[in-house]
Amino acid sequence: MRAASAYHVPDASGMIKLDAMENPFGWPAEMIAAWQARLREVELNRYPDPHARELVATLRTAMEIPAGAGVLLGNGSDELIQMIIMAVAAPGRCVLSLEPGFVMYRIISELCGVDYVGVALDENFALDLDVTLAAIAERQPAVIFIAWPNNPTGNLFDAEAIEQILAAAPGLVVVDEAYHVFAGRTFMPRLPYHPRLLVMRTVSKMGLAGLRLGLLAGDEALIHELDKVRLPYNINVLTQVTARFALEHGAVLEEQAATLRAERARVFDALARHPELKAFPSDANFILFRTPAATAIHGALKEAGILIKNLDGGASALRDCLRVTVGTREENDAFLAALDGALLAMHNEQEGAGT
Ligand SMILES: *Cc1c(COP(=O)(O)O)cnc(C)c1O
Q1: Do 271 and 236 lie in a common domain?
Q2: Most-buried pick from 102, 166, 290, 333 (CB within 10 A)?
Q3: Rounded Cα distance, 279 and 18, in Å
Q4: Is 204 in the pocket of ligand 1 (CB under 6 A)?
Q5: Which domain, by its residues, includes 258?
Q6: What's the pLDDT tens digit per position in 121-139?
Q7: Is residue 206 in some structural domain?
Q8: CA of residue 114 to ligand 1 center, whole Å
Q9: 69 lies in a domain?
Q10: What is the whole-number distance in angstroms between the Cα of residue 201 and the centre of ligand 1?
Q11: pTM (2 decimals)?
């Protein structure tokens, strides 16, 4: 434990927060009033429904889960990742994922004492099928995690390549669809055809990050086994009631997602116009871009009151990379203006140093 470090979340008070893929929008006043009326009836003195049956029924419809599939809920999908890894953890087992990718797969594996195998994506962050299949054949992973779209790169891997991984995998394959509302693609309808496929979703990126609710769908017998790892009452009453309410008002969330998809295109075009930046196309609600002096740019943006994610200095494939979450039009304009300012200041400095 002394060699490990706790997951760090920077203080963002007073800043424009574009670092954590949150939805920037609130709810209309009448929707908040209706939600509060619903909350008034909640019995906080009672334990929540341990199986969250009403919420699961709502989620089955809202997320178009195939009839007959099992459903497991987590306190965020992070908890589901932890449950899956705890369920398979045993000497000699390993977890495999693609890199650069979502860091929790590795962090939770290490904390559970399970070997972690990171397979490199190619230089455009596409899935390298030959390399991945070779690693699967060699390491025989108990679980493969595939974030689709991927975080922090934002792209969707080739669906046919994922099918081939499913065919070759000796164990479970989790397709993590945290950004589903921004991508519109899903493996959910394929669940009945793949008994070892698990599809993971979360309500976090669609506008409910504060609730902490994730969902795992898959073969009923498999979900039944995974459920044994779950702590009782892991989904609290306020989350159960609120998530149901929000999903009943799904049109509001979908409209917000549509606005963010349009803003994503606008921010991408603005970034792509900068000759010295490279922006990577995204199917999520964030954009990864490479810039000279990324850490300095990140610091200058912070000075200007804008918090984005600095990935420079971590994995070498992410050298000079920054990740910005798509926000409201105003937030995105503030980010783009501050980025222009930082790049210009750096140019002037370089010219000053040259003369
Ligand atoms: C954000 C994210 C998650 C975690 O979601 P929570 O439900 O908030 O725990 C899982 N997977 C990926 C790929 C993510 O980007």
Answers
A1: no
A2: 102
A3: 16
A4: yes
A5: 16-25+251-347
A6: 999 999 999 999 999 999 9
A7: yes
A8: 20
A9: yes
A10: 8
A11: 0.96
